[in-house]
Write a structure and sequence with these properties.
It contains seven helices and 15 strands. With about 270 residues, the protein is of the alpha+beta class. The protein folds into two domains: about 140 residues, Immunoglobulin-like (Sandwich), CATH 2.60.40; about 100 residues, no CATH class. Helix 5 runs parallel beside helix 7 and helix 6 runs antiparallel to helix 7.
Length: about 270
């Protein structure tokens, strides 16, 4: 019986590891991109009865979603929707199934429904983009949302808008950590980063990290303990996080780096 249980656990883990996600344009089958008003379908495949969540990045804002569903008895879950004008712009979706990242990370660009050869004008200011063009229903404008605007996640939840002037000290600290974790890994020691590093587990919740992001967490761990603002009180939660990340990656070299980082943090 013990052998069977171990085998079952191995099969489930392997299936979660090989979880896949696919987005399809159901309005214009065979077309890779999307326009406003296009319908989409997202299909997740993995082992049966595994929790599914999604992390959505929209205009630099990140929503670390909760468990939104479970794969069915055949290991499948799907959702459908339609892109509206408020969805214009770039999207990034990282789906987590059974505690592991489903491949690939989805990057979607929703363009305006402009007529081919019609009049069109685009302007950009920083991350904000505006498009003005002729469509089948006349001249329309498409504008990416500002920080104060809400946005919908792929599973249909609405994330309220927020401005920096309304952010609490904790929310600002969370953004510093998220930026270091999901960016290029250039984690610089600082008071805010050291004070907030223990919040990483709370921030990501049920969502898994990609191998690159795990590498960034390793860099953050070294930065906060090698800098002058050492995060002694963060040590227990950081060690627990590093141990959890060891189970999320299947790269031996990264697992070894995580083990070495755990030893480094515990030695401080």
């Amino acid at each position: 019986m013990r052998t069977l249980l171990i085998f079952a656990a191995f099969v489930t883990s392997a299936a979660a590891q090989n979880a896949a996600v696919k987005i399809t344009n159901t309005s214009r089958p065979g077309i890779a991109g999307f326009q406003v008003k296009d319908k989409f379908q997202i299909v997740v495949t993995a082992a049966p009865n595994l929790p599914v969540s999604v992390r959505t990045i929209r205009q630099g804002r990140t929503d670390w979603g909760p468990v939104v569903a479970y794969t069915d008895g055949s290991g499948r879950w799907s959702t459908e929707g339609r892109y509206g004008k408020q969805d214009f712009g770039e999207w990034s979706e990282t789906w987590t199934v059974g505690g592991k990242v489903a491949n690939p990370v989805i990057v979607v660009s929703v363009t305006g429904a402009c007529l081919p050869g019609g009049h069109a004008m685009m302007n950009q200011s920083g991350a904000n983009v505006g498009l003005f063009c002729d469509t089948a229903t006349g001249h329309e404008s498409f504008v990416t949302p500002s920080d104060g605007d809400s946005f919908r996640t792929p599973d249909g939840r609405v994330i309220p808008g927020r401005t920096h002037s309304q952010m609490t000290a904790e929310e600002f600290g969370d953004e510093v950590v998220v930026s270091a974790m999901t960016g290029n890994g250039n984690a610089r020691p600082g008071k805010r980063l050291s004070a907030s590093v223990s919040s990483i587990d709370r921030i990501i919740g049920v969502n898994a990290l990609t191998d690159n992001e795990i590498q960034n967490v390793i860099a953050i761990s070294h930065a906060v303990f090698e800098g002058q603002f050492q995060a002694k009180r963060s040590m227990p939660s950081l060690v627990a996080l590093l141990q959890q990340l060891t189970s999320e990656t299947d790269e031996p070299a990264l697992q070894r780096q995580l083990s070495e980082t755990i030893a480094f943090v515990q030695s401080q």
